[in-house]
Specification:
The protein is built from 17 helices and 21 strands. It has helices spanning 15-20, 62-75, 87-104, 144-149, 181-184, 189-192, 204-213, 241-244, 247-250, 256-262, 292-295, 299-311, 314-319, 326-334, 373-387, 403-415, 428-440; strands at 38-39, 44-45, 50-51, 80-82, 109-115, 118-123, 128-133, 155-162, 165-172, 221-230, 263-274, 281-291, 363-369, 392-397, 420-427, 448-454, 457-462, 467-472, 478-480, 487-495, 500-505. Residues 460-502 form the Dimethylamine monooxygenase subunit DmmA-like C-terminal domain.
């Protein structure tokens, strides 16, 4: 899959872009250390958008973060280190990243062969055109690792494998989260992670080390890590602790509005790649920051982050450096339920947390629609509760725009006995469609429960086509009708029977 970069020169963060591409890290309401490794280049759909398609991610913060890296390296050269034996690995890393950029962003990045070991590299975003000979340092304006990290938002660490261990022997790390790359250069992977609580006792670090040693070329993996950061600071390295450390106490003195603006959920997406020529292991560390005030606009994220922070064990919160303000962050998120969501008599009112299973039911039908991780989590919890009470069926569907999936749901509804409790979860369109189908099959309100994991889409009934369509939009907004192509105003008026919102020509246009 290829992408085109739409905006790379903002002076302030693009809120919509930050939210849509944010890799929310929590799959459950609790967090513990784990290897949490999965194959790379698998897109992840979230309630707000999608992430994970490409190994190297370029977004609206590209120029700003590239400029930050240059300033940090100019002020502190220890953020860049290459031990002599790692020079071949730096060329391997640079070339691998150029190929990834060329594949992911072909309209802005190109790598072309011009002869044996001769290459032309173009980065049209930054206006770079460079002819080079692979392995010849005189043909590049900078050391290979530093050259390529001046064109990606990721930090890079290169690990050499020898004597059964991995050693961090090269890298450019300017956005460290409370650690010192300059201090760690030359240390083994096991030595670096020695201070992390629980990981040795629970065997996490040993399993991760063994996994990394087994990595094969052309089989990249990824994992995520997280913490909280005060303000939009990418560089919270140990070297400059006096600049940011005091904020951990000072943040407790600000009002709630400032707290929500300044406290950020910080997520690292780490790609793990065995380089094909040198055999070194490349760690790519891409850091994403999202303030709590934006996180809270995605209600499933708000609820889950609050639960994780409230439940996090003391030793883990202390190691992450959030022990002083994590309780306030959890309270802030719990109190930040969206008050502005329309709840008038013409609008559906969705529960903010998954409703409990009505255990007085004679049987249970759990319907999970879509591939959202929250959908899977909610439906699993419902099934676990229902199975302890009575006969339970889980029906997993892709989308109710698909005729086969609609037939499967109708068949399950037809087979349901009187008194069966029907629980539906998924996106707003699918939940509304499923509830309407259940009502048509004879279900009464007491038998129906639902939980909407996102509201970015809705079922729209065009008053002119007299047909219901799936569209992305919200009540009060304007969308283009997929049937008649009119611009339609989506009214704050829905029909539970039809399972759709009413829409008509915007501005009275015909």
């Amino acid at each position: 899959m290829t992408s085109t970069i739409q905006n790379t020169t903002p002076t302030t963060p693009d809120d919509a872009d930050l939210v849509a591409g944010f890799p929310f890290p929590f799959l459950e309401d609790r967090y513990r250390y784990s290897t949490n490794v999965e194959p790379a280049e698998q897109p992840v759909t979230t309630p707000a958008g999608q992430w994970g398609t490409a190994i190297v991610d370029i977004d609206s913060e590209y120029r700003a973060e590239i400029d930050q890296r240059a300033a940090i390296l100019a002020a502190d050269p220890t953020r860049h280190a290459v031990l002599p034996h790692m020079v071949p690995a730096t060329w391997d890393a640079m070339f691998t990243l150029m190929r990834e950029l060329d594949a992911a962003y072909p309209e802005q990045m190109q790598l072309r062969s011009t002869g044996p070991d001769e290459w032309l590299w173009r980065n049209d975003i930054l206006g770079i055109e460079q002819h080079f000979r692979y392995g010849d340092a005189t043909t590049l304006p900078d050391e290979p690792l530093r050259y390529i990290t001046s064109q990606v938002q990721e930090d890079i660490a290169l690990l050499d494998q020898r004597n059964g261990q991995l050693f961090v022997d090269a890298g450019v790390v300017t956005f460290a989260a409370d650690w010192s790359f300059g201090f760690d250069v030359g240390m083994s992977f096991l030595e670096i992670h020695g201070p992390v609580p629980r990981v040795r006792r629970e065997g996490v670090i040993t399993r991760a080390h063994e996994f990394l040693k087994r990595l094969q070329p052309h089989q990249p993996y990824r994992r995520s890590n997280w913490t909280l950061t005060i303000d939009r600071r990418l560089d919270v390295s140990t070297e400059i602790y006096p600049e940011w450390g005091p904020d951990r106490e000072a943040i407790l003195l600000v009002d709630d509005a400032e707290f929500g603006r300044r406290v950020h959920l910080r997520v690292e997406v780490q790609h793990l790649i065995r380089l094909p020529d040198s055999g070194a292991v490349m760690f790519l560390i891409r850091t994403y920051l999202l303030p709590l005030e934006l996180l809270a606009t995605v209600d499933p994220w708000r609820r889950r982050a609050a639960e994780v922070l409230a439940e996090l064990p003391e030793d883990m919160a202390d190691y992450k450096g959030i022990i002083k303000y994590r309780d306030r962050a959890a309270r802030w998120l719990r109190n930040a339920a969206r008050q502005s969501a329309p709840t008038g008599p013409g609008m559906p009112v969705w529960p903010t947390t998954p409703p409990d299973v009505d255990t007085t039911g004679a049987a249970f039908l759990v319907v999970a629609v879509g591939d959202d991780a929250e959908t899977a989590h909610v439906s699993r919890n419902w099934v676990a509760t229902a199975e302890a009470v009575g006969a339970t069926r889980l029906l997993v569907l892709d989308t109710l725009t698909d005729e086969q999936d609609r037939r499967s749901l109708n068949a399950a509804l037809d087979a349901a006995l009187t008194g069966t409790r029907i629980l539906v979860t998924g996106g707003q369109y699918d939940v509304m469609a499923a509830l309407a189908m259940a009502r048509e099959a004879g279900a009464i309100p007491a038998e129906l429960s639902s939980y909407v994991v996102h509201t970015r889409d809705l079922p729209l009934y065009c008053a002119h086509c007299r047909t219901t369509f799936r569209v992305e939009g919200c009540a009060g907004g304007v969308v283009s009708c997929p049937g008649c192509a009119r611009d339609l105003e989506v009214h704050e008026h829905h029909s539970p029977t039809m399972g759709s919102f009413l829409a008509s020509a915007a501005g009275g246009d015909t």
